[in-house]
Amino acid sequence: MTSVMGNKTKVFALYLICLLLLITFGCNPVMKAERRVLNNLESSERVFRELEKTRPCANDTTIITKNDTTLLVDTITNYKTDTININGVEYITIKEQPKTIVKTIKVNQIKTNYIVDTRRLGIMADSVRYYKVNAQINKEVGNKWKWRFWGLLGILIGFILIKRFVWSYLNILH
Fold first, then answer.
1. Confidence (pTM)
2. Are residues 99 and 77 in the same domain?
């Protein structure tokens, strides 16, 4: 009987663990929001635009540096000679051991190229375009409401003037 109770307890514990995992991962609002963002193109675009403002691309500019090193070597051998002219024949004798002078010039050429990711620039241009369009729409709506305000004010003033004239005319008739 105890082994049967022990098995039932193990099954019940496993059932409780599975139930807790299901509740934890099934009702997780973060995962629901992630699924909603990843499955809906419009909401994912909105979220990614906001993320790009706070976390810009880390490699939006790539710097390429090319180093070119050239060694220029110039060798000079210095002799100390003595020329003797005997019966029209010149004899050249070397008095000392020749000295070799080596001159080395090291030339470094560094070329730096910048490659800019235009995605960020495109995002900024879209943002500017969005605010320009919104400003234009707000200006048009503001003008429409401004004319409505002045029209209603004119109607109100006209109504008050007509009412005064009508009442004054009716009072004259009495």
1. 0.28
2. yes
